[in-house]
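PROTEIN FOLDING TASK:
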Amino acid sequence: MTDPHLRNPGFPLDRSWFEEIAVNTPAAEARAAQLVASRSPKKQWQAAWLVNAIRCMDLTTLSGDDTEARVARLCAKARAPLADHILAGLGLEGLTTGAVCVYPTMVAAAVRALQGTEIPVASVATGFPAGLMPLPLRLAEIRYAVEQGAAEIDIVISRALVLRADWAQLHDEIAAMREACGAAHMKAILATGDLQTLSNVYKAAMVAMQAGADFIKTSTGKEGVNATLPVSLVMARALRDFGARTGVKIGFKPAGGMKTAKDALNWQILMKEELGTDWLRPDLFRLGASSMLGDIERQLETHVTGRYAASHRHALA
């Protein structure tokens, strides 16, 4: 395979890669359940997996009442996600989250708060979360976020195009978004909870990758159903098939509904078993979550001190 740091160059739409695919839903559900049941890291191994989850985390705030002060607090947590005594007990230093993710109007504040670090700022765009805006406005929002300093752009696809199997328009829209991103890496949010079938999830993922997505992402976090293990399994299989055809490694980001340290372990186990250890690095794997960081910190404090801390002892992201 090629260097994972190289961008996805994009490919012409080729329906033969996905149109005949039919996903067996019960089999996907059974495989996902078997994966997490067969592995349960303990003690220092569990601690190592949880630390890795932190460095792959997109610490996120996407609320209607976001302020520059809230973003600054989020960025402070991204710089120092664990309390000093936990970090010392683990023998670590310099641990940060993978990125900070905000709305376009908060990008500049995040860039200022992260100055002097290597933590990238990610911005949602394209009429997040519904994506129901004219394409020129969606592209303008991407360009605005990039101009403000976003190094990563999380775009949303038009779900209606998937539901009516208009793969050509979906490919063209995502390719235009990829061009608007310029040097910023593009994560394509499939909003899988709106796509009705796992077969649609696979097909949408393949079209997004053909159109140039550097990452594929499950959800906005605003759908009724967000990241699930069966959906993530299907997307991982699409990643694997795409890589086998092209030699290009595409990243994966589950998002929404993940709240516990156990969730962080489960998704990493799925990545390792289905795609290998390369997908346990932040250049190819991100966890779109913030609330799970508090539980991860509690579990790591327990590992270090032998005492289970109350949740109020750890600052929320």
